[in-house]
Amino acid sequence: MDGMKFEFDSRKLAFLLLFSITALILYQYNVSKIVGVNDQYFTGFQLIGPIGGGIINPALGAVSALGVEVANFVFLGTPLTLVSFFLLFPMAFAAWYFGSKKIDSALVGLVCMVLFWLSPVGAQAWYYALYWLIPLGASFFKNNLFARSLGATFTAHAVGSVVFLYAFPMPAAAWIALIPVVAVERFAFASGICISYVAMNTVLSAFSSKVDLSFLNIEERYSLVKA
After folding, report:
1. Which of 69, 74, 76, 92 has the largest count of CB atoms under 10 Å?
2. Smallest Cα–Cα separation from 113: which of 154, 167, 59?
3. Helix (H), strand (E) counts: the chain
4. What is residue 46's three-state secondary structure?
């Protein structure tokens, strides 16, 4: 898997910490309610969490996303349960997908499809899981920012949905009813990830003329200013 080697560069780790703190702050702002689950919300973290995999590398991006989830978990004093433990991972997989250039990043979605269909409820709403073919298709267009963003947000969706499927008693009809909601929701999240990535590249590109940021993966084509 590309990007799975950790390079202990103090500048990179400092940026990782700064990025994670920013993501944690955005975590405190709710974007929309998760349908079918009480007191669960999508937050600003869904819009910035995945891009760490592109700015830093897939491995450290995933570490950042997981670290933010753990920090928020501790900050809120959330009781540790099997469900809350597994919900720490969707954004880490999304960050890995966003930063990875290889097709194996799409395997998470395919595994989630199988897990969804193995559930009696999931088997009745089997076509809901077809959404997770999107990360596979998008993996062939990783040079397109929206495709990367869409694949990343659906990777997080796949992992989160499987956790909710096995943890909460939602009938098949409820999952089927969510299909159009998911389409709008994930299109919005993918758009937000694109905006976040362009904003981050723009800021970093502007600073790179004054500070050595060669340890980061700044994509000039997604910057509104040129270094």
Report:
1. 92
2. 154
3. 12, 2
4. helix
**Partners of residue 42 on adjacent β-strands:** 32
Give the residue-averaged pLDDT of 69-87.
84
Rounded Cα distance, 227 and 224, in Å: 10
Mean pLDDT on 15-38:
80
- H-assigned helices in 168-207: 172-177, 179-207
Q: Helix H segments across 87-144?
A: 90-99, 107-118, 120-124, 134-138
CB 97 within 8 A of CB 70: no
At 9 the pLDDT is: 72
CA-CA distances (angstroms) from residue 4 to 43, 54, 55, 59, 100?
27, 13, 14, 5, 10
The more confidently predicted of residues 109 and 41 is 109
Per domain, the residue ranges of the chain are 10-222
Q: Are 215 and 9 in contact (CB under 8 A)?
A: yes
